[in-house]
Design a protein that fits this description.
This protein is mainly alpha-helical. The protein folds into 2 domains: 14-56 and 84-156, no CATH class; 162-495, no CATH class. Helix content is 46%, strand content 6%. It has helices spanning 29-42, 73-78, 86-118, 140-159, 162-165, 173-186, 201-206, 209-216, 233-243, 267-274, 283-287, 293-304, 311-319, 321-329, 331-340, 368-377, 383-403, 469-495, and strands at residues 193-197, 221-225, 252-257, 352-353, 360-361, 410-415, 444-446. The strands form 2 sheets. The protein has a 5-stranded parallel beta sheet with strand order 2-1-3-6-7, with helices on both faces. It has a two-stranded antiparallel sheet with strand order 4-5. Helix 1 (29-42) packs antiparallel against helix 3 (86-118) and helix 8 crosses helix 18 (469-495). The longest helix is centred in the first third of the chain and has 33 residues, at 86-118. It starts with 28 loop residues before the first helix and ends with a helix.
């Protein structure tokens, strides 16, 4: 009796069970694949607020928005830039979803082939190839660890170095943050008393480095600003660590405080924005700044696998590589536009607001776009969002103070004007974020909370949270005057104990 060799898949032997773990003999290829799939599925694609263009505070032509992670949470949910670009966003979302499923299918195919070829059975010399028994010892745990390590190393080479950060979309929040910090690190020292100003969009709209330098140049001061929309107190800490590694570069650093709003819906934006500045050792401290466990997990992952924070940016790069190259070539123009920006040139005079009904009355001179921007800025945040904002400032500004506690650099804590109407929620919450040890430190100066109360009028605002060009001028003048007087007085006192 002649035994005929099996000729198709139906003839595979069934007396020996399939041993799945035999795939480990293929080294770390399969574990790497598994890890890639896990991370890809576990970390949602950060579409909203990552590759969509950030609002250009340095452009005087934009008058319809004032993007601020603390001031207007609805911008995060609708459009980061303040301009509704529904068609491109829909195409990008569709493309990313298609890519995700293609990758999943490819990974499943690789896993199937690996399992099939690694299973037990007699080996055929003709097609189709039958499984064979592996003579090697299985090292499942070791191979899995090697796969994870290889994946982390690959992510580190690509995303934790300047390899990818140098080609981030310059009009995204992460790209803008990376650009201004990189420019500041490369800037040569002026030899003057350099003062660095940090903050979110309220400080970006309210402070003018050009005006400050005109006022302070005679006394030997030079002002530099890194205020950026969508940034928060923990972002400022990482920015300072990046541009001032020795904690001795600046004569003084201005840190604002005041009531803001940190919606949970903006967590993905906050993670992607600060991603270029994160390190492996930041995984626990950075993750602790988020309220929800989902946000903490994503923040932790972004520190270890930074590529998870750049998913949308990578997708945008693959979809529009030529446009990305042209955008990167325009970076010098973006820096110049930021330097010459003078603020919005309209105000809210004649606008009335009823906090009970939410109704607003506008003067005829305002355009429809300006009216919509004002209405959106009057969103009523929850009490928990305001309290969380204050807690975030209290925790992370304290870290800034601690970092400069042994440095000659003076930290100037300044309040921010709260808004044009007394009915706004910011007026019902204590302005100070509570820094109990601030006054005890020799290098910490704090401006009184009432310093900018004179600006809390519709004359100085172009919407509910951001100063216009006139308010920008007055705020800068008052801040520079107070700062120079206090810093020089503190320096004189230190010289004569």
């Amino acid at each position: 009796m002649i035994n005929k060799a099996p000729s198709d898949f139906a003839s595979v032997r069934t007396d020996e069970p399939l041993k799945f773990w035999a795939i480990a003999r293929h080294g770390s290829v399969v574990p790497v694949t598994v890890v890639c799939l896990a991370v890809f599925l576990a970390t949602p694609c950060m579409v909203k607020g990552v590759v969509q263009p950030a609002r250009a505070d340095t452009s005087a032509q934009q008058t319809t928005d004032a993007a601020s992670i603390g001031a207007k949470p609805e911008y995060i949910a609708v459009t980061v830039s303040g301009f509704a670009e529904n068609a491109p966003a829909a195409r990008t979302t569709l493309w990313q979803g298609t890519t995700r499923w293609l990758v999943i299918m490819a990974v499943i195919a690789v896993l199937y082939i690996a399992v099939y070829l690694s299973s037990t059975g007699t080996l055929r010399t003709t097609f189709p190839t039958e499984p064979t028994t592996s003579p090697r010892r299985l090292h499942v745990g070791r191979n899995l660890l090697l796969g994870v390590a290889a994946f982390i190393c690959l992510d580190g080479i690509i995303f934790h170095t300047g390899l990818y950060t140098s080609i981030l979309a310059p009009d995204s929040y992460a790209g803008r943050l990376e650009l201004i910090t990189r420019t500041e690190k490369r800037r040569a020292s002026s030899g003057l008393k350099e003062v660095l100003v940090v903050g979110d969009s309220r400080m970006a709209e309210g402070f003018s480095a050009a005006v400050a330098n005109e006022l302070g140049s005679a006394a030997g001061f030079k002002f530099v600003t890194l205020a950026e929309p969508a940034s928060t107190a923990n972002t400022w800490y990482y920015m300072l660590r990046d541009v001032d590694p020795t904690a001795r570069r600046y004569w003084a650093i201005v840190v604002p405080y005041g009531v803001g709003y940190e919606p949970t819906s903006a967590e993905l934006l906050r993670i992607s924005t600060v991603a270029p500045l994160l390190r492996y050792g930041d995984c626990l401290t950075f993750a602790s700044a988020f309220q929800q466990w989902s946000g903490r997990f994503r923040a932790f992952t972004a520190c270890i696998l930074r590529g998870s924070a750049y998913q949308s940016d990578v997708a945008d790069l693959l979809e529009h590589p030529t446009a990305r190259i042209r955008s990167i070539e325009q970076e010098p123009g973006r820096i110049h536009a930021r330097a010459v920006y003078k603020g919005r040139n309209y105000d809210m005079v004649g606008t009335s607001y009823d906090s009970k009904t939410g109704q607003m009355t506008f003067p005829p001179r305002l355009t429809e776009a300006q009216r919509q921007a004002i209405q959106k800025s009057l969103l009523q945040p929850s009490q928990s969002e305001m309290q969380y904002s204050l807690r975030l400032q209290r925790d992370w500004i304290a870290r800034v103070l601690n970092r400069y506690s042994k440095s000659p650099t003076a930290i100037v804590l300044t309040p921010l004007p709260r808004g044009p109407f007394d009915e706004l929620p910011a007026f019902s919450v204590a302005q100070r974020a509570a820094f109990p040890d601030a006054r005890a430190q020799r290098t910490v100066l704090s401006l009184p909370e009432q310093t900018f109360d004179f600006l809390e009028k519709p004359d100085y605002y172009f919407e509910a949270f951001h100063l216009n060009s006139r308010g920008r001028q007055r705020f800068t003048e008052r801040l520079v005057t107070e700062l120079m007087a206090r810093v020089e007085a503190a320096a004189s006192h230190a010289s004569y104990p």
